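[Meeting: bench + compute handoff]

Bench side (C.D.) handed over the final construct sequence. Compute side (W.E.) agreed to return the predicted structure before the next meeting so the bench team could plan truncations. Sequence as handed over:
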Amino acid sequence: MPDAPRIAPKILIPTDFSPDSERAFYHALAFAVARQARLTILHTGSESRDSVPWERFPGVRETLTAWGLLPPDAPRTAVAETLNLDVSKIAVRDDDPRQGITEHLRKNPTDLLIMATQGRAGLVRLRRSSVAETVTYQTNSHALLLPDDNPGFVDPQSGNAELQRVLLALTPGRDPRSAIAYLQPWLPAFGGDQADVKVLHEGSGHHFVLPQNGRWQLTQRESDSLDAVIDAAEAFKPGLIVISGEGRQSLKARLKGSQTDRLLKALKIPLLSLPNL
């Protein structure tokens, strides 16, 4: 019986050609190489498609060559033929990047969205909401959010990913099995195949077994508050926190800041936000 065809995961990285989006690009490309994924680089802006300044962004082949994965004279076809990597660049004309990225994702769902972001709260958040937070919420995507004052866990010079500790801190009451199943195949790409993974659990009655590969541990969550997650992160010092996406919020909650914003502001650690199921 022939083997089932491999389904390549899809990764999306939006860019505004800023240094922060370059950092997200290096993460996206490293993960795409590791998983032989379909990588889409998306730009939304007011320019016509013919005038998008792609030259301001790192080239895919040039980066792969610098990482030692392709020879200097590799043709464009080598990206697919040598690395089994499918890369496309798309430009969407839209003055509002939130709207442009969201519309693209609604038509083309992705397995992993990667964006640089800033933690905001209070009136600043209401007046100028984070593009990453808005897109993640509106599309209910699996989203890796990289705070602007953290280098992340991919070396832009070598493409090497290294992740030593991961904190899985889902909303109390949520069954962690789907989160664990999603995280397992991505951890090696994140450089965390031997990472210590701490699962905060409040003992709500969900029965599950932790993976045997790697170093997973179950820790009782002391309370339902976000402060408990912050305390656990400050003690454990993870390179990545995995959290649940959030539903609609009241005005009071929006002024206080979303869980994502508050964690980014307090910890300055990359967050992997999982869909709100």
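W.E. noted at the follow-up: Residues 165-274 form a domain with the Rossmann fold fold (CATH 3.40.50.620). C.D. will use this when planning the next construct.
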